[in-house]
Known about the structure:
The protein is an alpha+beta fold. Helices cover 17% and strands 33% of the residues. The longest helix has 14 residues.
Amino acid sequence: xxxxxxRVGFASVLSNMSDPQVTGRLTAIMKKINLxxxxxxxxxxxxxxxxxxxxxxxxxxxxxxSLDGTLNAPMTITPSAGRDVSTLDVPVxxxxxxxxxxxxxxxxxxxxxxAVISDYAYNAVSKVYEPTDPTLDKLxxxxxxxxxxxxxxxxxxxxxATLPGSPTLTSSVSVLxxxxxxxxxxxxxxYYVFNQGNAMKxxxxx
Length: 206
């Protein structure tokens, strides 16, 4: 349930970003987080992402294509005080020096994506795991840079992802901030996304 929440939170950008084993890899991480909870009986331990977020930090959605190996440009993530907005600032850089460009790509976009993941607790009545904050769980927002040419200096990019509805986030939810890069081929003014060569990872958790 907790691993699925991550996948649902990033569902709109995962199709071209993940490997076939991403579900199993997320489940394995959630099991490690589950084992960290010593307050409940075995089989009823909570999944407290908020207590040990480090397990998910730097998670690569495609283990065969790392973000840092694909896009190594300088960037800064700044969350808002309420954690409902993330601003990804990327200064001007030369893609030929900082981007691993797949053959045929003419452009790329940088993605700033945030997803709210609730802690999960075992419900002894229903005998299933449930989010402690169901209204906040899986809330997400995705923002894109401009289409950037692979053979020219970029422009300054400030990519702002804002959760819908201005929610008030509680201490039992975590905001996963993923950064990705997606490649395109431009033909007669239309940008066609590549299925391969893209990468995304969780860069920050707040």
